[in-house]
Design a protein that fits this description.
Elements: H1 5-13, H2 20-31, E1 32-35, E2 40-46, H3 54-62, E3 66-70, E4 73-79
Antiparallel strand pairs: 1-2, 2-4, 3-4
């Protein structure tokens, strides 16, 4: 069990390439959303946590996510996917 978001961010930054998409799936489903019609995946983060999540944001950008702003929150967004969850690759949670 994690004590706080800082501990979660630290552990998530250590995840390997196979584990990171699974973590990301749960984060998107918890703090974001998937819009199949608009072919968009979004993850919302408070601006105060951007430095804390910097390593994770960098990895999201490597997966093709872009950073934006929406109502004072930072938003990681991925547009134009033929299949909105295709960024998960071989995520064990989708098997």
């Amino acid at each position: 069990m994690f004590k706080d978001k800082a501990e979660v961010a630290e552990e998530a930054s250590r995840l390997g390439d196979e584990e990171f998409p699974t973590f990301t799936l749960y984060v998107v489903l918890g703090d974001g959303g998937v819009n199949v019609k608009e072919k968009r995946v979004r993850l919302y983060m408070g601006r105060s946590k951007l430095e804390l999540w910097r390593d994770i944001i960098d990895r999201l950008e490597d997966l093709g996510f872009g950073m934006d702003s929406d109502y004072g929150r930072a938003v990681a967004t991925r547009f134009g996917l033929p299949k909105p969850l295709s960024w998960l690759g071989k995520c064990s949670a989708t098997a």
